[in-house]
Design brief:
With 229 residues, this protein is α/β, with parallel strands linked by helices. The longest helix has 17 residues, at 174-190. It has nine helices and eight strands. A hairpin with a 2-residue loop joins β3 (72-77) and β4 (80-85). The chain has helices spanning 21-32, 39-52, 60-69, 97-106, 110-124, 136-140, 154-167, 174-190, 212-228; strands at residues 10-14, 35-38, 72-77, 80-85, 88-89, 129-133, 146-151, 203-206. The radius of gyration is 17 Å and the shape is globular. It has a single domain, classed as 3-Layer(aba) Sandwich (Rossmann fold). Bound molecules: 2'-deoxycytidine-5'-monophosphate. 2'-deoxycytidine-5'-monophosphate binds next to α2, α4 and α8. It comes from Candidatus Segetimicrobium genomatis. Residues 11-224 form the Cytidylate kinase domain.
């Protein structure tokens, strides 16, 4: 029997930016003692490396070759999960607005997606994982045992993102954060390769006005019910 069949499911959590995926996915992984994989951090890493090396984000061939050559690793330390790109800790470096924007540009390229999806499938192969992204339930693991599509209103998503940026000391105003979210959403939903959408068998959760720990508890219950079924 494969580890997945022995009760180590894959929990796929997809949704738009600011829906609370990271907080929720991390909490679900912690409660279930599963591994947590943030796939957005991988696309961010590609954008960061391209910017770092002076590769134009509009140069699809160069960005694709870069994505295929990068070694992206997740490591867990006492402070949480860190992401390394060719051995460099980029955990904090990939959270700037410039990298956010760049990630949504490079994630449109099919070759970049294929390279990232191959790594994601390896990371999730044994199950016991909570994987968060845009296409986990539709493309990366269409056979995931549990699929959640986490959504929230644009106003709430912009407000959460704004608070997050402010907490990190980054200067931002709510209206420009809202516009940037709207633009990233549009790109994610309308790209021809693996657009953001809910899988037909996903449980759709609207988290508007619901605290993250409540959403996480609901997903944990869902996983436990499926495991018992
Ligand atoms: O979740 P995030 O904001 O860290 O994601 C950064 C960008 O990467 C976002 O614009 C969408 C893209 N992305 C993707 O295309 N597919 C994924 N599985 C995860 C993220």
């Amino acid at each position: 029997m494969t580890p997945r069949a022995r009760g180590n499911p894959i929990v796929a959590i997809d949704g738009p930016v600011g829906a609370g995926k990271s907080t929720v996915a991390r909490a679900v992984a912690q409660r279930l003692r599963f591994r947590y994989v943030d796939t957005g951090a991988m696309y961010r890493s590609v954008a960061w490396a391209a910017l770092q090396r002076g590769i134009s984000l509009s140069d699809e061939r160069a960005v694709t070759a870069l994505a295929q050559s990068l070694q992206i690793d997740f490591v867990t330390d006492p402070e949480g999960q860190r992401i390394l790109v060719d051995g460099v800790d980029v955990t904090d470096l990939i959270r700037t607005p410039q990298v956010s924007d760049g990630a949504s540009v490079v994630s449109v390229y099919p070759g970049v997606r294929e390279a990232m999806v191959a790594v994601q499938r390896r990371l999730g192969a044994d199950g016991g994982v909570v994987m968060e992204g845009r296409d986990i339930g539709t493309v990366v693991f269409p056979d995931a045992e549990i699929k959640v599509f986490l959504d929230a209103s644009l106003d709430e998503r912009a407000r959460r993102r704004f608070e997050e940026l402010r907490a990190r000391g980054a200067g931002a105003d709510l209206e420009s954060v809202r516009r940037a979210e709207e633009e990233r959403d549009r790109r994610d939903r309308t790209r021809s390769h693996s657009p953001l959408r809910a899988a037909s068998d996903a449980v759709v959760i609207d988290s508007t006005g619901i605290p993250a720990d409540e959403v996480a508890a609901g997903i944990v219950q869902l996983v436990q019910r499926r495991l018992r079924a």
